[in-house]
Write a structure and sequence with these properties.
Order of helices and strands: EEEHEHEHEHEEEEEHHE
Structural class: alpha/beta
Shape: globular
Number of domains: 1
CATH architecture: Alpha-Beta Complex
CATH class: Alpha Beta
CATH topology: Spore Coat Polysaccharide Biosynthesis Protein SpsA, Chain A
Helix content: 25-40%
Strand content: 25-35%
Bound molecules: cytidine-5'-monophosphate
CATH superfamily: Spore Coat Polysaccharide Biosynthesis Protein SpsA, Chain A
Distance between the termini: 33 Å
Radius of gyration: 18 Å
Number of strands: 12
Number of helices: 6
Length: 235
């Protein structure tokens, strides 16, 4: 029952483009290596992970593959590492990653490379829940801000915060279920996380505790979270 991670590093990083000197965030430096390497090595340290499928932007695929080969030669992660090209939307990148996985992959964890501070304990919680029989598992945190629906400058509604959760990655799935959820949703259905596809299929999604440090590098102010996030032209 092999477990693979699809590591999403195929975004265009438009929200950070100016602050990062035009470098896509997954290629910013963290500890002297590209950002995506941090979570790749965390997953590789988890005993259950058989391999990591890194999804790169199509335009950067060749250069990123070369750079990754150099990193792998210098720091053997001890698991299989494969690469493929992403798509226009995040969910297209997930689908491409899924399609390229080995056929014996039973469970898949989908993780945003933009969350470099994921820790092995969180990965372990997701995998344990999958092994216990949950087909779809997501890490969540309580919402501490009050969330309102706003259109233009007017508040339309206020939600009951006690019923809301902030969702992180990695999200874990029975690989066959996630494929089925993609097929059921079709091309027109656009989502911001993969569990939404399973919900759309009418199947249950289980939650485990996330971690506050597992933040997504999204906006320019998040760059302060990286020790040495210096723009680098090398993917
Ligand atoms: O844009 P956002 O921050 O939501 O992206 C989340 C993750 O999905 C990032 O790691 C990004 O590289 C990845 N992504 C992708 N393919 C896309 C869009 C985003 O792999 N087309």
């Amino acid at each position: 029952m092999s477990v693979w991670t699809v590591l999403l590093a195929a975004g265009s990083g438009t929200r950070l483009a100016e602050a990062s000197g035009g470098v896509k965030k997954q290629f910013l430096r963290l500890g002297g290596k590209p950002l995506y390497w941090r979570s790749l090595s965390t997953f590789a340290r988890c005993p259950d992970i058989a391999g990591v499928m890194v999804v790169f932007p199509p335009a950067d695929l060749d250069a990123a593959r070369k750079a990754l080969a150099g990193l792998l030669a210098a720091h053997d992660p001890g698991v299989a590492v494969l690469t493929t090209a992403g798509g226009v939307r995040r969910q297209d990148s997930v689908q491409n990653g899924l399609a390229a996985l080995p056929s014996d992959c039973r469970f898949v964890l989908v993780h945003d490379a933009a969350r470099p501070f994921v820790d092995p304990a969180l990965v372990g919680r997701v995998i344990t829940a999958l092994r216990e029989g949950h087909e779809a598992v997501i890490p969540v945190l309580p919402v501490t801000d009050t969330i309102k629906e706003v259109r233009e400058e007017t508040v339309l509604a206020t939600f009951d915060r006690s019923r809301l959760a902030a969702v992180q990655t990695p999200q874990g799935f029975d690989a066959a279920l996630l494929r089925q959820a993609f097929a059921h949703a079709g091309e027109e259905f656009t989502v911001t996380d993969d569990a939404s596809l399973v919900e759309h299929l009418g199947r249950p999604v289980h939650t485990v505790p996330g971690h506050p440090d597992n933040r997504k590098i999204t906006n320019p102010e998040d760059l302060a979270l990286l020790e040495d996030a210096t723009p680098s032209p090398v993917p």
